[in-house]
Amino acid sequence: MMINSENTPLIHRSDYQPLAYRITEIALDVHLDPENTEVSARLHFLRQNPEPVKEIHLDGEGLELLEIRRDGQLLSENSYVVNGAGLTLLNPEADFVLETRVRIHPAANSALSGLYHAGGQFLTQCEAEGFRRITYYQDRPDCLAKFTVTLHGPKDTCPVLLANGNCVAQGEDAQGFHWARWEDPYPKPAYLFAMVGGDLAAMRDTFTTQSGRQVALEIYVAERDLGACSQAMESLKRAMRWDEEVYGREYDLDRYMIVATDSFNMGAMENKGLNIFNSKYVLASPETATDTDYQGIESVIAHEYFHNWTGNRVTLRDWFQLSLKEGLTVFRDQEFSADMNSRGVQRIGDVRRLRAAQFPEDAGPLAHPVRPDAYSEINNFYTATVYEKGAELVRMLHTLLGKEGFRRGTDLYFERHDGHAVTIEDFVEALEDANHTDLSRFRTWYAQAGTPLVKAQGVYDPKAHTYTLTLSQSTPATPGQAHKEPVPIPVRMALINTQGEKTALDSRGDREKVLVLEEATQTWTFTEQPDPVIPSLLRGFSAPVRLENPLDDQSRSFLACVDDDPFNRWESTQELALQALLAGTQNPGTVQHFPDALERALAATLQDGAMDPAFRAELLSLPSEDYVGEQMAVIAVDAIHQARDALLSQIGHHFHDTWLNLYHDLAGAYARDGLSIGRRRLRNMALSYLVYSDRHREDDMTLHARQQYVQADNMTDRLAAFQLLVQHPLHDAEDILMDFYQKWQDYPLVIDKWFAIQAMAPRADALRHVQHLLVHSAFDWKVPNRVRAVLGAFTVNHTVFHAADGSGYAFFAEQIRRLDDINPQTAARLATPLSRWQRYDEVRQKAMIQALQLLAAKPHLSRDLAEVIQRAYP
Ligand code: 0A1
Ligand code: ZN
């Protein structure tokens, strides 16, 4: 596609060059002012090689250079060059001190990268390349320096001044300004730099490390939110303890600070000793946050904390290694959450997310390896592949090496590389060396894009009493990678007999095994199997693959009732429901057949009152519209929606009395323990099925929802009812919408939900309604959470976004054009659903391509959005 922007040059992994100069120390002096902030920087340069170099490039973007000195002397104009990409120093000495003074404009920074002023606070975001928007620097992760930062700010609006490390001095000057000096003893790359200035209150606590040091913990929020920080604080302490116990990693500074803001592009950022968080992952009270929100806080707080070792102490050589910190840290946070909550339910959620975001990415034009080979804009590579698939690779390594072997490997990794900027290769080597093993073939996982397909074929021989299992693998071609190699795939498996027991698989009596499928096809024979068996494969989802296991419905239904692997038990029910939904899409509009096998599986779960309610709720939920679409050659948007609606109402109707009993029995006082959370989840699921059952009945179950909406004493229950009412196709919920808004208008995170639930409602006038949301007085183009609440939610309102007349796409593209001028990173991310045009029918394809063309023709197209469009429609 012709792109209307200053082209999109690619940066290649193979072009990596080590630094010619290190910067050993940096001292920053910052005078905070929303309109004009001045930043003075003093950098100590040290040449790495004896040979002189012609020039040094320092990155810089949008900086107004006011002064520049080398070793104290003003620099003459012919010894440096300044342009849009930065500053080039000509004929530098072997070592020298560079001083610069620049002016920047935080209030005008709506991209939220670098230093910005939002909601009355000064904040920074430097990953990946934001530091160059603050001062001239070698803004790359292998440039590790010791930072000293002095912040000056007005006392009234900025009583709190924070930066990384320890506060070593503070004072006041004559003009009513005060200042604070911070020193971080650990050399770090610039992407981990942070500073904050604002009127903030702190929730304080302490943590005593395993070696007995006391660490001050501080969470900075607006004064009125102080009461909503306890989940964050408790999660932080649990994460600190867990990292000591499971990885032997202790915190290394005397102070750990977290700052919350409503204006943030992502979830949170692991800046050394000074995390900056989207307030969505800090603030929670039972009245304003759902159980899912609480869970999100626990996992993101842990994620950022775990980065202190996996990312900060051991950092990245270059951005192609991003998954070295992200894949590993996601794996660590998933395991932490599994230990804190229910392991089975956690795994199901992790796989759901992987399949919802990463599998489609891996199957489309934006597919890339976990360790990419080239990029234009690194911000576009904070993807589900780098994060979630990256975590799955680490999980497979954990499976292959075993818990102890993996720990030996990470111990060696930290020992070897502490304080260094390293590669994924270094990580794999440490695991190999610590275990005297060879992971050569495993490396292909990092280099190759695409989701492998594993096909299983099993034969039981009743005479020989053997069960023979043949597994084969293939990976579809992805952009730039036509040919694929086999990868080692750990397949955790068991054989289950007619009594529902796992049989012995070998003479040792093991009842579960990990088979490693390394070749294109391999066969395993299990002897001494006196009875027919059903294979339970890929238990715990032991590898990020698609599995084709040709079982009949009978066997699946059986596994759905007896399999002791929670993931596979869930998977069996999902597969039955998926088949029913796919069948439903074939005959849209007709009364749907509700298969016996699915009925039996659901009935067994519904009757099992002893089962963990959270797990029970998982077993009773249907695959998402997205997931169903993924399994089709052409995504039949409307048919999927109708089939799913129809099956929901059938299940609601068929088990009506059971749902109603559950709904009443599960009522209980609000509490935050795991059991209560599970009970709420299951109860709200019952309510949802009851409301769907209305279609078949005389009674009006929305009355229950209305009552619950009014009487709820917590946001989980209130929002569940609210969502059902707003998204119900027949009932008018204007009064409820007004009521909700009035109650919560002062709580941005709650109002985000109010926007999102409306933007997801498949109502007849949905597009017009979403247009209205964009002009609502509470809508704000500058706040990413708010923009995502409307535009992000709109893209999952499938029947509206994908309306056959193209109206959804056209509307959407217009909004993305507008957003690109304000916040390119968020615009590019939101635009990715358009890249999946090949998956739809011809009419929709045309309309999606038109939308992409509308974007491509935009004047001043950002590099972020340009790259997404370019790759979506080359
Ligand atoms: N490293 C953070 C995520 C993050 C990435 C980029 C950002 O701005 C462009 C902000 C945050 C994490 O993994 O949590
Ligand atoms: Zn991370």
Automatic annotation (TrEMBL):
State the EC number(s): 3.4.11.2
- Tell me the keywords, alphabetical order: Aminopeptidase, Hydrolase, Protease
Q: What is this protein called?
A: Aminopeptidase N
**Which species is the source of this protein?**
Acidithiobacillus montserratensis
